[in-house]
Amino acid sequence: MQDNLTLSIIKPDAVARHITGKINEMIEGAGFSIVAQKLIRITKEQAQRFYDVHKDKPFYDDLCNYISSGAVVVQVLKKENAIADYRKLMGATNPEKAEEGTIRKKYAISIDQNSVHGSDAEDTARREISFFFSETELVGC
Ligand code: ATP
Ligand code: MG
User: Fold this and answer.
1) Atom of ligand 1 at shortest distance to CA of 11?
2) CA 82 – CA 88 distance, rounded (Å)
3) Nearest CA to ligand 1 atom 2
4) How far is the CA of 31 from the centre of ligand 1 (A)?
5) Which CATH code is given to the segment(s) 5-42+70-137?
6) Is 48 helix (H, G, I), strand (E, B) or coil?
7) DSSP-assigned beta bridge partners for residue 33
8) What was the pLDDT predicted at 2?
9) Per-residue pLDDT of the chain (141 residues; tens, 9 = 90+)
């Protein structure tokens, strides 16, 4: 896998508000191809493993409870420079600090309910994609 793939999660706040399509429109409008996608419910145990890197942070428990609180859409996005470009499209973690035109500026409710996740580096993208998808599920590659 290369830096042209990144893992995106459309988080429970966005799926519950039925804005998956609107977010996908922004993603595709920015030149990404959605090469794999599924609607799932992440278990608490999976959330704890997925967010293991944050286990010493004060928000770890709340984060794991939140991401497992409702349906999410996990997806693999493809584009040249996908990791950095998707983080740019997502905007700052805290939506109050997110720039105009970003997904979080437009749709996020709070720093917890911030609508989307995106991988932050090549090694984490590889780990996060294989956390949810097998090679054969990357049908758009
Ligand atoms: P994500 O990993 O979801 O793409 P991010 O990379 O912008 O977001 P991280 O630092 O990886 O931010 O934090 C993971 C998630 O933990 C954030 O999306 C946010 O919901 C939550 N979080 C981060 N910092 C805080 C904080 N200071 N207070 C509360 N929640 C936080
Ligand atoms: Mg992160």
Assistant:
1) 3
2) 10
3) 117
4) 25
5) 3.30.70.141
6) helix
7) 78
8) 63
9) 567 999 999 999 999 999 999 999 999 999 999 999 999 999 999 999 999 999 999 999 999 999 999 999 999 999 999 999 999 999 999 999 999 999 999 999 999 999 999 999 999 999 999 999 999 999 876
- Known catalytic residues are 117
Specify the residue with its C-alpha closest to ligand 1, atom 12. 93
Domain ranges for the chain = 5-42+70-137
Site to probe by mutation for ligand 1, drawn from 9, 27, 48, 59 as the one with most ligand atoms within 8 Å of Cβ, is 59
Q: What is the pTM of this model?
A: 0.96
What is the rounded distance in angstroms from the CA atom of residue 109 to the CA atom of residue 6? Answer: 23
Query: 87 C-alpha vs ligand 2 centroid, how far in Å?
Result: 9
Helix, strand, coil share (%) of the chain residues, nearest 5: 45, 20, 35
